[in-house]
């Protein structure tokens, strides 16, 4: 049965989980990898209770509160979409992360959920443990982590295919080149520079959207485009490349907060 950081089953059987404490939930089939990762997460994030579940219905337990992150591993494809909807309905403040064997071979329905912002991070199983734990920390702080292969797959094939521009946005990719800035061989638009500056300060997507007068979905699309153009996988790599660049991208370049560093 379920125990915090040690067992599996129904949440109500756990006696060692504090209602007041924030929780990382691992919804996973039982195997050695899931057990080892749960222990590693528990050791790294000692201010959190790690709750391991094998049954998605346990997410409905009224005693399961203060969930900061739900990590999914080997969830059956037939129930995956309903599980994601359940998480967002009953734990709306929780970030959602997905552990996968191969990001390039991700099922189309799962990729669609990523594109809709229902999944905040995809972590391949071949990640180094330190990188995996850093990515989990990033998700709990409102960030996102996606492999470059997945970002390439999600990116629109043609710039004119879909319009994500908000009312205050200028599509400078097709406009005056003076409105865009360079990062080595990378060309970012003025809007992307604004978002990258805020990313490097550790600003969450919701706050970026608020500050720039955009929808959160528009900000997420810009973030994905920034990752693709810079050939990076996450905020940490984007910030690292940004501050190593010889090209000036903005008026100020303050080092990123420690929390974004690996």
From TrEMBL:
Gene Ontology biological-process entries: regulation of DNA-templated transcription
CDD domains to which the protein is assigned, alphabetical: LuxR_C_like
Region (Disordered): 157-183, 243-262
Signal peptide stretch: none
Pro residues composition bias: residue spans: 253-262
Keyword field contains Ligase: no
Keywords of the record: DNA-binding, Transcription, Transcription regulation
PROSITE patterns to which the protein is assigned, alphabetical: HTH_LUXR_1, HTH_LUXR_2
Annotated Pfam families: GerE
All residue ranges annotated as the HTH luxR-type domain in the record: 181-246
Keyword DNA-binding belongs to the record: yes
Protein's UniProt name: DNA-binding response regulator
Upper lineage: Bacteria, Pseudomonadati, Pseudomonadota, Alphaproteobacteria, Hyphomicrobiales
């Amino acid at each position: 049965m379920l125990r915090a950081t040690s067992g599996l089953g129904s949440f109500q059987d756990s006696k060692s989980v504090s209602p007041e404490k924030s929780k990382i939930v691992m919804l996973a089939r039982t195997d050695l990898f899931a057990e080892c990762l749960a222990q590693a997460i528990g050791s790294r994030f000692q201010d959190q209770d790690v709750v391991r579940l094998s049954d998605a219905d346990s997410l409905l337990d009224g005693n399961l509160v203060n969930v900061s992150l739900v990590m999914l591993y080997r969830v059956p494809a037939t129930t995956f979409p309903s599980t994601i909807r359940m998480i967002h309905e009953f734990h709306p403040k929780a970030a959602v992360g997905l552990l996968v064997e191969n990001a390039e071979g991700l099922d189309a329905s799962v990729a669609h959920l990523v594109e809709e912002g229902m999944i905040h991070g995809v972590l391949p199983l071949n990640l180094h443990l330190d990188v995996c734990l850093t990515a989990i920390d990033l998700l709990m702080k409102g960030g996102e982590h996606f492999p470059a292969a997945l970002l390439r797959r999600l990116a629109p094939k043609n710039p004119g295919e879909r319009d994500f521009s908000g009312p205050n946005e200028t599509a400078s990719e097709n406009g005056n080149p003076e409105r865009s800035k360079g990062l080595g061989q990378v060309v970012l638009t003025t809007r992307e520079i604004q978002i990258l500056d805020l990313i490097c300060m550790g600003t969450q997507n919701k706050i970026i959207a608020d500050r720039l007068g955009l929808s959160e979905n528009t900000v997420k699309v810009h973030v994905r485009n920034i990752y693709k153009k810079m050939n990076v996988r996450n905020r940490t790599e984007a910030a690292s490349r940004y501050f190593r660049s010889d090209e000036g991208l903005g008026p100020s370049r303050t080092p990123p907060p420690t929390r974004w560093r690996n």
